[in-house]
């Protein structure tokens, strides 16, 4: 059967729902979750995660939130075979602050625990429930006196396989199967979108270099492409995202770019109100200066308004992301001295 791995490197961050009060918190599971302790009344006051490690020791997370409310407990009886695959809830105004008002949890046993908190159903609903093949392996958000915001880390489940010995030269990256989500409802301006979430497409290119994943965000504002003119290859990429909670902008790490110096930089500015990224395409092939590894040679970006690029040189194997109606909400890939591979997270309409 499927196994949940608690290797943090593989998880995908999904942006939090709720308000921007309190302080940021993050808790990645190192072992299966056994209980969730929830303090609640009219809202969710706090949440604590209880896991059991291989030595059968019980480990409690910090309490995320304040001391108010009455305490209830979700017990995942069949852990580790039963695990979380969904979260639902509402957020709204409480005493002038935007906070999490109710929460429910969904497991692969088709069990739904909750709702906890305000059962009246007022507030903005949110929901992320994965189909079989995905698990929630951590949580993050904001908290102070209450639970201000909550988001998750997702992971694609692995089916146990026997490793096969292969030469590096023969390995080609096959696009990952999409990780399907039954329903994510994003209620903003009363638009309801049914979507599918990571890890959707790619990465395309080589399999050397360090894997990276920026996560999933509502808006991408800018992309900077670094082109190495001597090697005719893309040496790096950097993306500016907008956080939906407080509308702050932040840049990802520069993915690649360790061989910088001969770079031409191209900047794409996306008008986030009326324009969004819908697809990428390009070429990859081995580059001598990159140890003969497959490297992205050319990349172009499509938005709802037009095309930016292509940047780089058309050499090697062609790739393109899906033509399904949707928008790009994040990037992942592999990089080192150059950008070796790139993939996208899609939100489908």
From TrEMBL:
Keywords: Lectin
Domain Jacalin-type lectin, first and last residues per copy: 11-156, 198-348
Gene Ontology molecular-function annotations: carbohydrate binding
Superkingdom classification of source: Eukaryota
Pfam family, one: Jacalin
InterPro entries in the record: Jacalin-like_lectin_dom, Jacalin-like_lectin_dom_plant, Jacalin-like_lectin_dom_sf
Keyword Ubl conjugation: no
PANTHER family given in the database record: AGGLUTININ-LIKE, JACALIN-RELATED LECTIN 3
Family stated for the protein in its record: Belongs to the jacalin lectin family.
Name assigned to this protein: Jacalin-type lectin domain-containing protein
Species the sequence originates in: Capsicum annuum (Capsicum pepper)
């Amino acid at each position: 059967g499927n196994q949940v791995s608690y290797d943090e490197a593989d998880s995908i961050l999904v942006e939090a729902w709720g308000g921007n009060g309190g302080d940021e918190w993050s808790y990645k599971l190192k072992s299966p979750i056994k209980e969730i302790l929830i303090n609640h009344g009219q809202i969710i006051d706090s949440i604590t995660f209880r896991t059991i490690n291989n030595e059968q020791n019980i480990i409690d997370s910090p309490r995320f939130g304040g001391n108010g409310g009455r305490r209830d407990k979700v017990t995942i009886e069949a852990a580790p075979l039963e695990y979380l695959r969904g979260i639902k809830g509402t957020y709204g105004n409480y005493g002038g602050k935007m906070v999490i008002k109710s929460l429910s949890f969904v497991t692969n046993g088709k069990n739904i625990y909750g709702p906890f908190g305000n059962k009246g159903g007022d507030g903005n609903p949110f929901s992320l429930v994965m189909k079989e093949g995905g698990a929630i392996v951590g949580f993050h958000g904001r908290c102070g006196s209450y639970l201000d915001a909550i988001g998750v880390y997702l992971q694609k489940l692995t089916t146990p396989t026997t490793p096969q010995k292969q030469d590096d030269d023969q390995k080609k990256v096959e696009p990952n199967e999409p990780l399907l989500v039954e329903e994510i409802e994003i209620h903003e301006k009363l638009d309801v979108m049914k979507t599918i979430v990571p890890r959707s497409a790619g990465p395309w290119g080589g399999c050397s270099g360090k894997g990276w994943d920026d996560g999933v965000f509502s808006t991408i504002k800018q992309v900077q492409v670094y082109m190495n003119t001597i090697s005719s290859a893309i040496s790096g990429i950097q993306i500016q995202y907008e956080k939906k909670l407080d509308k702050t902008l932040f840049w990802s790490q520069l993915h690649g770019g360790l061989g910088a110096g001969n770079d031409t930089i191209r900047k794409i500015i996306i008008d986030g109100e009326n324009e969004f990224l819908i697809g990428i395409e390009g070429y990859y092939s081995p580059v001598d200066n990159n140890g003969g590894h497959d490297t992205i040679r050319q990349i172009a970006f499509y938005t709802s308004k037009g095309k930016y690029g292509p940047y780089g040189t058309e050499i090697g194997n062609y790739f393109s992301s899906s033509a399904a109606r949707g928008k790009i909400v994040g990037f992942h890939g592999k990089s080192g001295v150059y950008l070796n591979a790139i993939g996208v997270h899609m939100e489908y309409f």
